[in-house]
Amino acid sequence: MSIPNCILTKKGQALLAKTPSGEAVPVTRWQLGTGVLAPELAVEDMTALVDPLQYVPISSCTNNGNKATILGQFVNTGLSEFVWEELGLWATDPDEGEILYAVGEARGNGETIEAGTVKLREFVFGMELSFDNAANVTTVIDTSLIFATKEELDAKADQEDLEGKADLDPETGKVVSSQLPALGAWRRVFEVEQWSGGELRVPKTEHGQTPTQKYTLAVLRQRSGRTALDYYGTSAAQGRTGIVNAMKAALAANETTPDTYPTAEDGHVQLTWHQVQYYLLEGVLTSDTEAQSQATAKGFNWQDTVTTGAVTEVTLDQVLTAAYVPALDGSSATLDALCTDTVLQGLKLRRKADGVGEVAQYDLEGKLVSAGWGAMEAQVYWDLDTQDLVVEGAPFAGDVCVMV
Predict the structure, then answer these.
(1) Which residues contact 64 (CB under 8 A, 6 or more apart)?
(2) What element of type H or E holds 130?
(3) What is the DSSP letter of 91?
(4) pLDDT value at position 63?
(5) What is the C-alpha to C-alpha distance for residues 110 and 112, in angstroms, rounded to an integer?
């Protein structure tokens, strides 16, 4: 982006001066703007953006000694094209209420951001404040924390270390590659069903990190727009019921018209993956040829698409064999024990998302957005006792990216 620097406003300086030593600055939210500040006006005198566009939630706020790093993020979903000229950070003053704490102005050199319908773009940006609460309040806002995309955030090196130690290539003017420090990110995709008691916990056996501080820089995104979902937890019962009903429909069809569907020696009907998946999605049992045709037309040819990483040695025919007895109104104990959510995931069988009507084209992926309620209402931290990574808040599906 084209905002060259960000500074504290006079109201921000006053708030910082009255913030007790060791306490966090009470920042509240970011704000984007499209206005151009008149040349004769000083940025530090601003109390509001010239032309506000929208507020953006604070995605992460961490304190380490005399430094505070505050991140924000937004996606241009639903926005028309605009020129990004202003970036403001708001905070709560105990005496004055919410104030414009810090602001950056491009002064007419802002970046044009395409409409979300033209090009979907995600932005992660932030400020790093260094201060002391002695006689003089000194503040430096590190604008190197402003990024154009999440990918740039993942690739960003430690700028402070580069300024102190790195050598520049005399031909390109860039830091020599051998001296670029490594900074990576660890990402985890999660579903609503994996939360428990308002928490999503990722054990150390999965993330492999050794945290030393509770809070960390993290990006949360919420997944939306999916019309098909994997089976997790209790939803596996829905999958088992669907398979039993498919078996009942096949047995009834064979009773009316023998040999409509092939039958094994033990009596269970040998349905194909496409037939079962089509039935689970739309409750329709048809020939394998027609089911494959529907898979192509409706976009559920995902039998080779891995989303959960689950692996199973249980075959579809073994599941169908176990479904035969409950299809005859017998016990479902064998099927319940055999056909778990992990087995359904390993077989790449999915269910129709709750609350959606008729689907023209199934979408297993959806979109990950960072401006939704999930990113606004959840926080990410390390449980130093268990070494778990914890996402806390109201459950939602999405992903978390943690700087490591």
Answers:
(1) 213
(2) strand 122-130
(3) E
(4) 66
(5) 7
What are the CB-based long-range contacts (under 8 Å, 24+) for 255-259? none
Sign of CA dihedral 314, 319, 321, 325: positive
The residue assigned the tokens 């959510």 is 341
CB atoms within 10 A of CB 53: 19
Q: Count CA atoms within 13 Å of residue 12 on its CB side.
A: 27
Intra-chain end-to-end CA distance of the chain, in Å: 25
| Mean pLDDT, rounded, for 300-307 | 92
Give the number of other CB atoms < 10 A from CB of residue 290: 14
Q: Which residues pair with 103 in a beta bridge?
A: 7, 88
Number of H helices, E strands in the chain: 11, 20
Do 26 and 12 touch, CB atoms closer than 8 A?
no
Q: Which of 17, 39, 161 is nearest to 95 (CA)?
A: 17
Whole-structure pTM over 0.85, yes or no? no
Task: State the amino acid at position 80 in one-letter form.
Answer: S
Cα-flanking dihedrals φ and ψ of residue 244, to 5°? -60, -40
Query: What value does the mean pLDDT of the chain take?
Result: 82
On the 0-12 / 13-18 / 19+ scale of CB atoms within 10 A, 310 is middle
Q: Which residue type, as a one-letter code, is found at position 338?
A: L
Q: How many CB atoms lie within 10 A of CB 395?
A: 18
The pLDDT of residue 298 is 96
CA gap 70, 150 in Å, rounded: 15
The whole-angstrom separation of Cα 324 and Cα 391 is: 42
- How many angstroms separate the CA atoms of 22 and 45, rounded? 27
Q: Which residue has the tokens 């401006």?
A: 371
Compute the distance between CA of residue 9 and CA of residue 146 in angstroms, rounded to an integer.
19
Amino acid, res. 98: E
3-state SS, residue 221: strand
DSSP per-residue codes, 205-225: HHH-----SSB--EEEEEEE-
Is 363 in a helix, a strand, or coil?
Answer: coil
Closest of 205, 217, 203, 219 to residue 383, by C-alpha: 203
Cα–Cα nearest to 124, from 1, 28, 225, 27? 1
For position 118, what pLDDT does the model report? 81
